[in-house]
Amino acid sequence: MATDAPSTPAASSEITADVVVLGGGPVGENLAQYAIEGTDLSAVIIESELLGGECSYYACIPSKALLRPPTVADTAAHLRGLSAPEIAREELLASRDQWVSHYDDSGQVEWAEGAGIQVVRGSGRLAGEREVLVTPPPSPGATDAAAGSTRVL
């Protein structure tokens, strides 16, 4: 799982942006993109997991990658002149992993950066008027959850 986006700011920093989006799923990505497209505005997406969201990595895409082949095999098994195909479990799982980019969102981060959107890793919360505090994902051995937090104004 790639969660160390190159656009993540250094520890205890401050970012100023016109648009701040909490959550980098499909809706968050579209919101950030359309809010700044063709303007001089800047946008930040705050995401604690994989950029692209649940559908891309854990729900829609992988489930379809796993459900469709058995359906096709069952259909083929009932057609005259064809023998029933066998499902190769490991190959099917490898295919699913390829469809979800091996749970690596670096391609999504590259897209966001190319669209002029900065990605900040962590959990965001409103901390005041026009202020979002981003707590970074916990790192092994960390004792202070607020250490390295980022303010987005």
Look at the structure and give the mean pLDDT: 88
- Please give the largest β-sheet: 4 strands, mixed
Helical proportion, percent range: 25-40%
Can you write the helix and strand succession as a string? Answer: EEHEHHHHEEEE
Note the total helix count: 5
Strand order of the largest sheet: 1-7-6-5
Shape: elongated
The proportion of residues in beta strands is 15-25%
Cα distance spanning the termini:
29 Å
Rounded Rg = 20 Å
Which parts are unreliable, with pLDDT below 50 for 5 consecutive residues or more?
1-6
Structure explained in plain terms:
The chain is an alpha/beta fold. Helix content is 35%, strand content 20%. It has five helices and seven strands; from the N terminus they run E-E-H-E-H-H-H-H-E-E-E-E. Strands 1-7-6-5 form a four-stranded mixed β-sheet, with no helix packed on it. Helix 3 runs antiparallel to helix 4 (89-99). The two termini are 29 Å apart. The relative contact order is 0.23.
